[in-house]
Amino acid sequence: MLLAVDIGNTNIVIGVYEQQQLKCHWRLASDRRKTEDEYGLLLRLLCHYEGIEPLDIKAAVISSVVPSLIQVFEAMVKKQYRCQPLLVGPGVKTGMPIRFENPREVGADRIVNGVAAFERYGGPAIVVDFGTATTFDAISAQGEYLGGAIAPGIEIATEALFARAAKLPRVELVRPPRVIGRNTVAGMQAGIVYGFIGQVDGIVTRMKAELGGRAVVVATGGLGDFIGAEASCIDKIDPMLTLEGLRIIYERNS
User: Fold this and answer.
1) From 154's CA, which of 18, 133, 182, 201 has a CA 20 to 30 Å away?
2) Domains, the chain
3) For residue 17, which of 253, 248, 254, 252 has the smallest C-alpha distance?
């Protein structure tokens, strides 16, 4: 079995593959204070509940945008599963040419998403990843990573509004019934949700134009289901896109 780990600023998504089938997956909070032993114990318990024992894991692949957690998870995998994980980064074969001015600046998760999107849906493609930041990544018809855009995530924007406006309360992130809110909470929810949807549709429309007018648009990330279902530009919602990309990259390097 293959252990796939995607470490983000807010969440860590972990999946276990048996050949090409995703058997189980979990979403954990990213905590820079946790040690390799703490993460190792937690993961062993989660695997145990799914009937997966340490000796079942034969290989691992990791992508991360949190440098301090790369070493933690690499050490954890070596200790718990007795294997050397593949770390997605410079020098790893992805099968995707990167047409970026400085390829080392591109987050590993963005390349992983691009690899999976092109493999599953073809190109040109646009991947919208709703995480701590919202990233928009463009893939050419030839499977090249072209670049993209980065915007504040919806949760960051919501928290900033609450923190900087003295009279505005912290609100639950839900779809409001109408744009014209009849109270402060409904008005904030309308502005946050529909404003964010408008941002997504607007950026994707401009990116499509630069790609020649067509592209399959794939939503992923923690809020991919929520926003993806509302934005008119989204063609596919694929919550497991990053894990799938990790599996593909591992196979290309094994």
Assistant:
1) 182
2) 2-87 (3.30.420.40), 103-246 (3.30.420.40)
3) 248
Q: What angle do CA 24, 28, 29 make, to 5 degrees?
A: 170
Residue 24 DSSP class: E
Residues assigned a catalytic role = 109
CA distance 228 to 219: 6
| Arithmetic mean of pLDDT over the chain | 91
Q: How far apart are CA 41 and CA 45, in angstroms?
A: 6
Q: What is the pLDDT of residue 81?
A: 93
- H-type alpha helices, 56-165: 67-81, 108-121, 154-164
Helix pair angle (108-121, 241-253), 10° resolution: 90
∠ at Cα 137 (171, 175), nearest 5°?
20
pTM above 0.70, yes or no: yes
Which single residue is written with the structure tokens 């030839």?
142
Does residue 189 register a pLDDT over 90? no
| Structure confidence at residue 237 (pLDDT) | 95
59 Cβ contact list (under 8 Å, min separation 6):
1, 2, 3, 83, 85, 86, 250, 254
Task: Please tell me the distance from the alpha carbon of residue 55 to that of residue 85, in angstroms, as a whole number.
Answer: 15
Strands 86-87 and 125-130, how do they pair? Answer: unpaired
* CB count in 10 Å sphere of residue 29: 8
3-state helix, strand, coil in the chain (%, to 5): 40, 25, 35
